[in-house]
Write a structure and sequence with these properties.
By secondary structure, the chain is α/β, with parallel strands linked by helices. The protein is built from 25 helices and 21 strands. Helix 8 packs across helix 24. The protein is globular. This is ATP-dependent DNA helicase RecG. Its EC number is 5.6.2.4. InterPro entries: ATP-dep_DNA_helicase_RecG (IPR004609), DEAD/DEAH_box_helicase_dom (IPR011545), Helicase_ATP-bd (IPR014001), Helicase_C-like (IPR001650), NA-bd_OB-fold (IPR012340), P-loop_NTPase (IPR027417), RecG/Mfd (IPR047112), RecG_dom3_C (IPR045562).
Length: about 725
């Protein structure tokens, strides 16, 4: 495998190597060999030109239909216009002051053309594209190279079109194919009918037909699935070897007292998940469990029972929340649920109770000192807070359980710093309200055992969701505000959600958006510029003066001071405001049962899962919930199709699949694994469930028998190649 670590400059020269590194992050021979074609075309099979997107870098296979040399008016120079076709649609190519190209760009010839799709006079065109003619005229080298087999089209850059990349790959295959090792055990390859890796790499780059291409990709899918699952299996094995203090519930203590006071019975799902968690807590190695649940399924209650079980053993539990709003909400709801059980040592407090400390960055000095003292002394059996819990001065008497809410919002270092505050590794419970498809859980959270809560507690009302096409049917938006007034008239409350805060200066070029503000999804029709997203401050003012005049309208957003945010949420929860106009700061954890209606403005600018999370803030009481998705996008657009999907189901797992299908899997997995580019190029976490599940089982068996992979040196090398420093650090810290 050492030869595959050779820098590309040794193979292709300094200049090309720099382009490969800068544009495509390809630095070694191995990187290049594992840069697979995005798709393949057959000679004579032209690219469908009507599917090209404006601003996309494309490589198309088309036939030249017409060539015109047009002089500029009133000045020197000319432009060469070439029209290419797939037989149905046409695409213009334009070259400036390059009339000499007429000699080779002649009608009837066929070629690969690469460039960025632009618009001119409402027609798509490529300006000064790179091209390679591939017909048999004049003994074309490309025609000879591609004769009799599929033509690979690679993910390329503006500086290096696909066919030049293909030449680099050919050089790597010719010189280094014999150096390719074999990471998969022979018995595994035999059992699953997998070809050797060297053969797979040759066939994925040089397939003669679709059968060869699929044989290659099947083997490469297995490599990606198996090597990653081996890494996760090693992590699980290492975790199981760590010592931890068993935390078995103690009868007659605070957990039993809490259960007796619950005004409702647990759902079957909650009982099942609690049993799984309690079984993990009773073992002598740290629990590593992912708790995912539908919006409103009662994850916080399950987590609280786990924390109380740890408190009963003399230990402490900590709940880490991503925002101050959510931390304060958790603190309020947990203290409310526990009553005098949360007031140990206070007048009227229970003798068997504990204290619930809150620690956030905005707390006053006196409150902060009190919380720190309660945590360090052990008086606070439960601590709830934000990143402030991670600071060095925060200490615990006996940290036994760490609960991380909305895990994807925390970095590895933050979780690790909190877990390090225990004398022995504490148990870990990761919670997410974003349902995750099973294969994604196996791939992204493969070192965690998974529990799923998909049953809503009795008494929760259904949420009806409707799309409001504001541009096509303005009267629908008028009716939406009438519905808000009707709900307020019944004594209920409403949310209005906007994508932006408002009154911002335009962000400097290259400056990142605030995390609270979502990425824009979709664009204007025919490449037209869209208006800026609607903003909280402007919308609140317009509503208070217009359709919601006379109602008590408040605003909530991430730029407000923490005490101001907390004050607004307290007053809204107490019913002192009718309508809360907010950003996605309310997305997770906010619980106001009296809120029955939510209007999401510019709903198409939010992701599918985010919309599902947002609407989960209504219908949390006995009255039915209503969510209205307001959008200007036309009925036939992809953006409206997303909104229709959200309106059509309350199944978060079904919506999470749609969400993942609409985003690039590699981005999702890369961020979840390590924050760097994903290793998955061929494997699809949605389509390859059987491969992932089988690879997980095979990897677990292999690691159980040979934890250090001593009998599999080439697999160990492949693992080291996968686990760059960042990714290895992620898996180490879990």
């Amino acid at each position: 495998m050492g030869a595959l670590d050779e820098p590309l400059k040794e193979l292709v020269g300094d200049r090309t190597a720099k382009v490969l590194a800068d544009g495509l992050k390809l630095r070694t021979v191995g990187d290049l060999l594992h840069h697979y074609p995005r798709r393949y075309v057959e000679r004579g099979q032209l690219t469908s030109l009507d599917e090209l997107e404006v601003d996309e870098h494309v490589t198309v296979l088309a036939r030249i239909e017409k060539v015109m040399l047009i002089p500029f008016r009133g000045r020197k120079g000319d432009r060469l216009e070439v029209v290419v076709t797939d037989g149905r649609s046409k695409l213009s190519l334009v070259f400036f002051n390059q009339g000499w190209r007429q000699k080779e760009l002649r009608p009837g010839r066929q070629g690969l053309f690469a460039g960025k799709v632009g618009l001119f006079n409402r027609s798509r065109q490529l300006a000064s594209p790179d091209y390679q003619l591939i017909d048999d005229e004049e003994g074309s080298s490309a025609a000879e190279q591609f004769a009799g087999r599929l033509i690979p089209v690679y993910p390329a850059s503006a500086q290096l079109p696909s066919w030049k990349l293909a030449l680099c790959v050919e050089m790597a295959l010719t010189k280094h194919l014999a150096d390719v090792g074999e990471p998969l055990p022979a018995e595994l390859r035999a059992e699953h009918g997998l070809i050797p890796l060297a053969e797979a790499l040759e066939l994925v780059h040089r397939p003669r037909d679709q059968v060869e291409k699929e044989r290659a990709r099947n083997r490469l899918r297995w490599d990606e699935a198996f090597v990653l699952q081996v890494a996760l299996a090693q992590r699980r094995a290492a975790d199981s070897a760590l010592p931890a203090v068993p935390r078995r519930p103690v009868p007659g203590r605070v957990l039993d007292a809490f259960d007796q006071r619950l005004p409702f019975t647990l759902t079957d799902g909650q009982r099942k998940v609690c049993a799984e968690i309690f079984a993990d807590l009773a073992t002598e190695h740290p629990m590593h469990r992912l708790l995912q649940g539908e919006v409103g399924s009662g994850k916080t209650l399950v987590a609280l029972r786990a924390m109380l079980a740890v408190v009963d053993t003399g230990g402490q539990a900590v709940l880490l929340a991503p925002t101050e709003v959510l931390a304060q909400q958790h603190h309020r709801s947990i203290v409310e649920m526990m009553g005098d059980l949360a007031e140990a040592g206070m007048i009227g407090g229970s003798e068997i109770g504990t204290r619930v400390a809150l620690l956030t960055g905005s707390m006053g000095a006196a409150a902060r000192r009190g919380a720190l003292l309660d945590m360090a002394s052990g008086k606070a059996g439960i601590a709830i807070g934000t990143h402030a819990l991670i600071e060095d001065r925060v200490q615990f008497a006996d940290l036994g359980l760490v609960v991380v809410d909305e895990q994807h919002r925390f970095g590895v270092e933050q979780r690790d710093a909190l877990r390090a505050k225990g004398e022995q590794p504490p148990h870990l419970l990761v919670m997410t309200a974003t349902p995750i498809p099973r294969t994604v859980a196996m791939t992204v959270f493969g070192d965690l055992e998974t529990s799923v809560l998909d049953q809503l507690p009795s008494g929760r009302s259904p949420i009806s969701t409707h799309v409001v096409p504001a541009l096509e049917k303005p009267n629908f938006l008028v009716r939406a505000w009438e519905r808000v007034r009707e709900e307020v008239g019944k004594g209920h409350q409403a949310y209005v959600v906007c994508p932006r805060i408002g009154d911002e200066e335009e962000p400097a070029k290259g400056k990142k958006k605030r995390k609270e503000e979502p990425e824009e999804v979709g664009g204007g029709a025919d490449g037209e510029e869209r208006r800026p997203p609607l903003a909280v401050l402007e919308t609140a003012e317009q509503l208070a003066k217009g359709p919601l005049a006379g109602l008590r309208v408040e605003v909530l957003h991430g730029r407000m001071a923490p005490e101001a945010k907390d004050d607004v949420m307290r007053r809204f929860a107490a019913g002192e405001a009718d309508v809360l106009v907010a950003t996605t700061v309310i997305e997770v954890g906010v619980n106001v049962p009296n809120s029955t209606v939510m209007v999401i403005m510019d709903a198409d600018r939010f992701g599918v899962s985010q919309l599902h999370q947002l609407r989960g803030r209504v219908g949390r009481g006995s009255a039915a919930g209503l969510c209205l998705l307001v959008s200007d996008m036309p009925a036939a657009s992809a953006a409206r199709a997303r909104l229709d999907a959200v309106a059509g189901t309350l199944d978060g797992f079904a919506l999470s699949r749609i969400d993942l299908e609409q985003r690039r899997e590699g981005d999702v997995l890369g961020q979840a694994q390590s924050g760097v580019k994903s290793s998955l190029k061929v494997l699809s976490v949605l389509e390859d469930e059987e491969v992932i599940a089988t690879a997980r089982a095979e990897a677990t068996r292999l690691v159980d028998a040979d934890p250090a992979l001593e009998a599999h040196p080439e697999l160990r090398t492949a693992l080291e190649s996968l686990l760059d420093e960042d990714r290895a650090e992620y898996l180490e810290k879990g």
